[in-house]
Amino acid sequence: MLSKPIKTLCAVAATLLAAVSLPAHAGKTIDAIKARGQLVCGVNTGLAGFSAADSQGNWSGLDVDYCKALAASLLGDATKIKWVPLNAQQRFTALQSGEIDVLSRNTTWTLTRDSSLGLSFVGVTYYDGQGFMVPSKGKIKNAKQLKGATVCVQSGTTTEKNLTDYSRANKLDIKPVVFEKVEAATGAYFAGRCQAYTTDASGLASVRNKEAKNPADHTILPELISKEPLGPSVRRGDDEFFAIARWVLFALLEAEEYGVNQANVDSMKSSQDPVIQRLLGVSEDTGKLLGLDRDWAFRAIKAVGNYGEMFERNAGPKSALGLPRGVNNLWNKGGLMYAPPVRCRARAPGLPLQPRAPSSFWPAPPGRRRRHTEAPTLRRRRSPPRNPDHAPWPRAPAEDPQFLAAQSRRARAAVPAAGVGRGHPRRVVPRGQHAREHAHARDPERF
What we know:
This protein is of the alpha/beta class. The chain is about 35% helix and about 10% strand.
């Protein structure tokens, strides 16, 4: 019989295993989204390639496409979104207060923001870095030549802090000219009030393309002075909504890796690739673990395409920004974009567990079959071996009690009693002084 503590541990383990397979329950954010029938997404007031509205009020950009994918997965319709334009000072307050559900506004993921502002970053949608833009006709050709220069910068951003750190570290004595709104900072630069303008490199390309009378008159310097991983964030404390927001992004990355795009997503449902079958909900219902149906990833891809399509459409070489893919390529193409596997169980239902290969750490003792290597049980009676797939890692020979016991028995049996020659049956000699006496009688020179 198992002892009471062992029974208690087994009951707790069974409860935990049962809880793992339960579907997710909707959180308060998801309930509010479904009750109002739309997702409230905070975006930039106007940054080409990331979030910008045209004359008809239609929003487009990399950050906008992410919100559309999230709405398609959660509500079944990528158009059920309320767009809330926010500047740098407003964005975190709007998310903390509940004015918006998700912030998708070219925001850098930093330690302070992730740990002390009550929000959680979902992932990275664009790996960026801070740079400088200067007039092409000027003498400044690299960042180290900005000594004593005036630089326009927006306040309340990591850009302002990075500029100060870079100037101090390189003793450049840069003079920041700070503006609350990005429109005021770019306007001052193009008016000639500053010798340079600084922000993320993607933002520099967007501003040059959108606001410069002749983009060729302005040069983006090659140096990047910081790391700027940009991505969406949600309020901390609602794990269910956080999981959905995170896995929607992962699904878009996984779709690109396996060739699923907006045009072929319907036909890909008949693919024999098990990864694609899981992603599109054909073989496994991954949606139940997120509180969604099995077509959640299918709808996201159908609405905006995979991540590669989003990038090329909004920021790639053929877009208005003309940015190279660079480090924003997939991990298997030299980039940093990587998604965990989309699956809900370690094996398909009905398939047996694959047994482990037998251990080869040490050979079986002579004249004796190898026994199953498992931890000793609490019962005196020998129990049948467990499923090999659940067996613990085999002990080293010096730690295995069965191996040590067999070694001790062989050592005792190898010493015959006095007068017993080869071919005679051996008998176990007592340990201690009697064993030493018998050994000495057999070989006096050795013992």
